[in-house]
Write a structure and sequence with these properties.
alpha/beta, Rossmann fold, Dihydrodipicolinate Reductase, domain 2, 14 strands, globular, 10 helices
């Protein structure tokens, strides 16, 4: 029997990607959906052939008890969805990024993670893009030598894509332990109230130094990844370059390049094709974890908490104009402090 899967929140575009991926997921079946808007619910259900529909995700969890649910809600309700899934006995959740918005919800989710049984991963599907997987393996098998510097960026702000960038850095440098973080921010438009609630400064620049001597440069927002000519969609411009002692690898959402021992190769790929396969592979990895506790999903909640901890320290460093470490005490109500600094 295939795994019974559902989606919470089908009014946005991200849910379409989740549903489309099931054409490549033989072990799973999209069996139920929920969203508050009745018209959106019926339109999505009709498009993807899902007859079991709910206006309340709690009711869907209780009645359907899916093995896996994809969660596409605003970030301010992540915890309540996780708590409802835990109470209903849902097996696993794949939650859209960002995991949290500031210190208070981060700490509450951290406490939930320590006591929960539901398996949680964050939807950083880029990790599973076929091209990214090949480049990650090149780095992990030592082809470029010891990592010295990582340049990673995105054209959307830290709330929308900052954890995408941090997860990418961690995927290529999985043993790296951050020793210090130093950052700057600018612009307050992204901190104003919006329905999507992805609050962050307009531009962020941060350096992360690691205990092994490697360092990373993170840029998010207007100062982020370069845009392809003629393509102004900010969400499709992310890039990462990893430099080692024997070469480098470069990945963007549309192309790649390697330089290893003096030999250069490069090529292109189509982001939508890569994305649907990445989404499918990410979901399949959750089924692996459901079947075997030792096969922990690489995008698990503990890894996501580490990435978001770095986000919080980036903001603290920028606000106080000092280096931060993961050991320093977290500042409460960071969004308010950012708004005072950037909006007055």
């Amino acid at each position: 029997m295939p795994y019974k899967c559902g989606i919470v929140g089908v009014s946005g575009g991200r849910a379409q990607g989740h549903a489309a991926a099931y054409a490549h997921i033989p072990r799973g079946e999209l069996a139920c959906i929920s969203t508050r808007n009745h018209e959106n619910l019926d339109a999505f259900g009709a498009r993807w052939g899902v007859k079991t529909r709910y206006r309340d995700y709690r009711e869907m969890f209780e009645r359907e008890k899916p093995d896996l649910a994809h969660v596409n809600t605003p970030p301010d309700v992540r915890l309540e969805v996780m708590e409802a899934a835990e109470a209903a006995g849902v097996g696993a959740l794949i939650i859209e990024k960002p995991l949290a918005m500031q210190t208070e919800d981060y700490l509450a989710i951290q406490a939930f993670a320590r006591a929960s049984r539901v398996k949680v991963a964050i939807n950083h599907q880029l990790h599973f893009h076929p091209r990214r997987q090949r480049l990650q393996k090149l780095v992990q098998n030592g082809s470029i030598g010891a990592i010295r510097f990582i340049d990673a960026s995105a054209r959307m702000n830290m709330a929308f894509q900052g954890t995408h960038v941090l997860q990418s850095i961690a995927a290529f440098h999985p043993l790296g332990k951050p020793a210090s973080i130093f950052a700057q921010i600018s612009g307050g438009q992204g901190l104003r109230e919006t329905p999507r609630k992805h609050y962050a400064p307009d531009a962020t620049l941060a350096t992360i130094d690691y205990e092994d001597g490697a360092s990373a440069l993170l840029r998010c927002g207007a100062n982020g990844a370069y845009a392809l000519a003629g393509d102004e969609r900010a969400n499709v411009h992310k890039q990462l370059t990893v430099y080692g002692t024997r070469g480098f690898v470069h990945w963007s959402m549309w192309g790649w390049e390697t330089g290893i021992k003096g030999e250069r190769e490069r090529g292109s790929h189509n982001y939508p094709d890569e994305d649907i396969l990445g989404q499918a592979a990410m979901t399949a990895a959750m089924f692996d974890w459901l079947e075997d506790d030792s096969r922990v999903h690489p995008l698990n909640l503990d890894a996501a908490l580490q990435d978001f901890h770095i986000v919080l320290k980036v903001y603290m460093s920028a606000l106080h104009r000092r280096q931060e470490t993961l050991e320093s005490e977290l500042q409460p109500r960071l969004l308010d402090a950012l708004r005072r600094a950037e909006l007055g």
